[in-house]
Design brief:
Layout: H1 11-17, H2 22-32, E1 40-47, E2 50-57, H3 63-83, E3 93-96, H4 108-111, E4 115-117, E5 123-128, H5 129-132, H6 161-172, H7 180-187, H8 191-200, H9 205-223, H10 228-234, H11 240-251, H12 255-263
Parallel strand pairs: 3-4
Antiparallel strand pairs: 1-2, 2-5, 3-5
Length: 264
Amino acid sequence: MAQSSVRELGAIGVAALDSASVREALLSVATLLPHHTTNEIITIRSTPGGMTLREAWGLRMDDETLHLVRQYVAALIQSVCNHAGAPLPVFDRVALVPHPVHDLAHLRACFGETVEASADRALTLFVPARVADRPLRPLTVDRPAPDPAADRTPLRGDGSLGMSVRIVMRAMLSEDTPKVERIAAAAGLSVRTLQRRLGAEGTTFSRLLDSVRRDLALADFDAGGRSSGAIAAQLGYGQQSSLTRAVRRWTGTLPRTLCRRDRT
């Protein structure tokens, strides 16, 4: 990591370094991230003692890959803190997935002695108030900093929890049937909290899963080339008859009718 690395991230980096303080910079990053990526999610919780930043992914990664990605993100966040002149170590605590061979010892030279194994595979950084509230040095750039509130189309749809859950479900369906426990863990929430927040948005876990399956199934039938049995297996239905009932509920017709229409 070099001091220029954050700026090289483009719009997100410029918005971060053009902020008034470290706290404002990290909040700008979390606001702009949905316009930058579909699978990485950063959440920030401010507290009197500082702020807690959590980074999670909607993709399944092996421990070595996840460890490398997480240390890179932590180094970028630390680079923002360094830009404010914060002395090392800048974090009160760093929690991430250990490397399967080298564990965490090699990271203590960069992040200090507070590095520990993550209990939920997410990256968690505790930034103390003495660092979070430090002013950032003015940044001179040859283009205006992006406005986080500007009218852009986010890659994660409307930015709601339900939309994010749908995206993660689609990724999970390539491997297995999405479970509410895995979705909650990816969001850094308890199952009960996840269900409560989805309810506040007027939906449920089962409705979201049904809508994702509907979209994927109808797209498959429209594309043609795959049997109903193969589509049912891909979408996590135990039997083809379950898909048949679902298609009838969604469209009022049967899969074979959709296939005939596609051929026509």
